[in-house]
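tool=predict chain=A
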Amino acid sequence: MTPRPGIIEAAADGTVRTITLPDGPLTAATASALADGVAALVEDRSVRVVVLRGGADFCVGPADDLDPVALGVDPAAALARLRVPVVAAVRGRCASVGLELVLAADLRVAAPGTTFVLDDVAGAGRLPCWGGTQRLPRAVGTARATGMLLLGTPLDAEDAVTCGFCWTVADDVDAATADVVDGLLGLGPLALEYAKDAVHRGSELPLRDGLRLEGDLNTLLATSADRAEGLAAFFAKRPADFAGR
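tool=predict ok
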């Protein structure tokens, strides 16, 4: 399925994809288009960074026509499968399925006054089903996540930075996000991919196995063209021209 126009847009050079959620609740059509559109990016080697953003409110929750269980697709899982870094730019209210999407991102930039709410249990008597019960404790800690899940307690932007959930709070979210993206684009894409893989897969492994994973990924990176280019650029004192291979 091709995503609806305006949901996923490519930068002029094709290296960045920006996903813009429409204002208001997340509809079934948008969720399906998002899942299919993101799935198509998984093996696209031209993509270096994905940006996820919304409007005045990032996402206030599911629309009346969206039953996340019955929908049959999981856009948060699709985002989490991406090899490349995913940067979420969040402002306003980010609730329920919206927070589950943001939890699948790697770096989060928030505006002052942003609130993160997982109110499915407290507000609607249902369980999150796009990974909220699993990714939230890993992101903010079990105690805080339990309060957010059982009581619907919001997490504000400043506390989100303090507990490590958000990378930064910025008055100009778009400019701050662009700075993060520019920084990522200046780095080796394979190194970023392997670092992301090491963090996410390693967090689910015993330490001994996680260290073995880190070693294996270092070995793979050492034999890559990007690694050779990085070393050549360093000694020549010039910017590196990474090819992602």
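The chain is about 45% helix and 15% strand. The chain has a mean pLDDT of 91.
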